[in-house]
Amino acid sequence: MQDPVSTSVADVAGVYAELVDSRKSARGFKPDPVPQALLDQVFGVALRAPSNCNTQPWQTHVASGDKLESLRKKLPEAFMKGEFTMDFPYDGKYDGVYKERQYASAEALYSAMGIKREEKDKRNVAFMRNFTFFDAPHVAFLFLPEPFGLREACDLGMYAQTLMLSMVAHGLGCCPQTALSFLAQQVRDELDIDSGNKLLFGISFGFEDESHPSNTCRTERAALPDITHFHS
Ligand SMILES: Cc1cc2nc3c(=O)[nH]c(=O)nc-3n(C[C@H](O)[C@H](O)[C@H](O)COP(=O)(O)O)c2cc1C
């Protein structure tokens, strides 16, 4: 391993670019639990995420073992019965270029899984895997305490990406999931969480199963000039 003192800025920039590039949503995991010492390290690094006035307006609850197995049974049943309890509105409808990107990402995922557009049943089965956490051994549920709103939700997003990069840097795969927030009260009940904590999304994580077809999916990104506008 390289001596950290002699590591140049270019080396660090290269490692960072590689880390960001290698993070992708993983939707297939090995059953092996992540050792607690590694969990402490991964979540400890993420504590350095920035936030407005350093308020750190987030609470993370990690479900594993029996708690997770109970949720893995209850959530698909609740979703199928339409027992939605989301804390934040969601309609999943996009227009224009945003709709194009939404369709392209769905297409990338389903074609990686060998599922055609017209195979609605197979797409539903693939979607329902959200509620069994893509077989992951752990889920981190990210809560926004009341009375926080839009600005603090942005803080939580920064925490989430810092956390996911930490997971990837430590050899783990992960998938952020708004789908899990559709059943916020069921998650709170299972983990005995106060109703003043509002669920924004969950992150299923663990050691990636590289043989799962969904994990060959690679999504595109907009070009630099479409997103970033330099003014001088
Ligand atoms: C906040 C957030 C919520 C997401 N919710 C879901 C979800 O419910 N289910 C899912 O399969 N993917 C979900 N994703 C993953 C996105 O589809 C994915 O990030 C996007 O297509 C880009 O692909 P990549 O993560 O592989 O780079 C979510 C991503 C984010 C950032």
SSE topology sketch:
Layout: H1 9-22, H2 36-46, E1 59-64, H3 65-80, H4 96-112, H5 120-128, E2 138-145, H6 150-169, E3 173-177, H7 184-191, E4 197-206, H8 224-227
Antiparallel strand pairs: 1-2, 2-4, 3-4
Helix pairs in contact: 2-6, 3-7
Outline the structure in words.
With 232 residues, the protein is α+β, with helices and mostly antiparallel strands. It has helices at residues 9-22, 36-46, 65-80, 96-112, 120-128, 150-169, 184-191, 224-227, and strands at residues 59-64, 138-145, 173-177, 197-206. Helix 2 (36-46) crosses helix 6 and helix 3 runs antiparallel to helix 7 (184-191). It is globular. Residues 24-25, 105, 130, 175-179, 201, 219 line the site of flavin mononucleotide.
Comma- or semicolon-separated keywords:
alpha+beta; NADH Oxidase; 4-stranded antiparallel β-sheet; 8 helices; 4 strands; 43% helix; 12% strand; globular
How would you concisely characterize the structure shown here?
This protein has 232 residues and is α+β, with helices and mostly antiparallel strands.
Strand percentage lies at 5-15%
What is the H/E order?
HHEHHHEHEHEH
Strand tally is: 4
Shape: globular
Alpha carbon gyration radius = 19 Å
For this structure, what is the CATH class of the domain at 25-92 and 133-214?
A: Alpha Beta
What is the CA–CA distance across the termini? 42 Å
Which molecules are bound in this entry?
flavin mononucleotide
Average of pLDDT:
96
- CATH level-four homologous superfamily name of the domain at 25-92 and 133-214: NADH Oxidase
Low-confidence stretches: none
| CATH arch. level architecture of the domain at 25-92 and 133-214 | 3-Layer(aba) Sandwich
CATH topology tier name of the domain at 25-92 and 133-214: NADH Oxidase
What about the largest sheet?
4 strands, antiparallel
Name the strands of the widest sheet in spatial order: 1-2-4-3
Please report the number of helical segments. Answer: 8
Indicate the structural class.
Answer: alpha+beta
Helix content: 40-55%
